[in-house]
Design a protein that fits this description.
73 residues; 66% strand; mainly beta; 8 strands
Length: 73
């Protein structure tokens, strides 16, 4: 699993021939995807498909923990 400290992020990146799933375990933050900016918190799922890009940032006071799963298309 991934753990982002407050103020940390994973910058924008594109997925090719794969789909990435983020399952948020704890904390809060935001994801930037093709449809804009979306708040995320415990229990949310983010799906980024083939050819799409995204980033995730912890803008909360606590660690943002999530599982990242990549499935090859």
């Amino acid at each position: 699993y991934m753990n982002l400290k407050p103020g940390c992020s994973i910058g924008e990146h594109t997925h090719h021939n794969e789909t990435e799933y983020y399952y948020i375990l704890s904390g809060s933050g935001f994801v930037v995807e093709k449809d804009g900016i979306r708040r995320v918190e415990k229990g949310d799922v983010v799906i980024t498909g083939d050819g799409e890009s995204h980033s995730i940032e912890n803008d909360g006071p606590d660690d943002l923990s999530f599982v990242a799963i990549i499935i090859l298309d």
